[in-house]
Specification:
The chain is mainly α. Helices cover 72% and strands 0% of the residues.
């Protein structure tokens, strides 16, 4: 294919048609990003295990952490294979903010679990940050999905 300006220039009608095709592709992709009802609770369960693992004494902590990490990876891969869409990449600024908030919550809750581990407090107290992380994973995960679908379905060329 040649790439000189005259040979590859689109007519205005061709350009409009290409933009319409992009709009319909974005809408079709947004329709595919429908998370099944079980997804966020299962992810939240692994997040809870992940956070609790930081407070477990001894080498059992690493075993539980490995189970949570493998579980999260398997659930994510299963979703990607089933629906053909990776939801781990934000499509715009709003979904990026929600994803950042989810990661921040997990890190803060994990640090809370570590603080519990290195103090004389009972490891059972780690259930508080774990439940908070799990609940926010479900709430923010659903908000992320909704925002991601909205951003995928939008196109800068579409009238506001």
């Amino acid at each position: 294919m040649e790439n000189d300006g005259a040979a590859s220039a689109l007519t205005p009608d061709e350009a409009r048609e290409a933009l319409r095709d992009l709009d319909s592709d974005g809408a079709a992709l947004a329709e595919r990003v429908v998370t099944p009802p079980w997804y966020h609770p299962v992810v939240a369960l692994f997040v809870v295990i992940f956070v609790v693992s930081t407070a477990i004494p001894g080498p059992a902590s690493l075993i539980v952490l490995a189970i949570a990490v493998v579980g999260l990876v398997l659930v994510t891969i299963a979703y990607q294979r089933r629906y053909g869409v990776a939801t781990s990449r934000p499509a715009g600024p709003r979904s990026r903010r929600i994803l950042s908030a989810m990661i921040t919550v997990m890190v803060v809750c994990m640090l809370s679990g570590l603080a519990i581990k290195f103090t004389e407090v009972s490891p059972w107290w780690s259930l508080i940050p774990a439940v908070v992380a799990g609940a926010l994973t479900v709430v923010l995960g659903r908000a992320y999905d909704a925002r991601l679908r909205g951003e995928l379905g939008q196109n800068g060329s579409a009238p506001a």
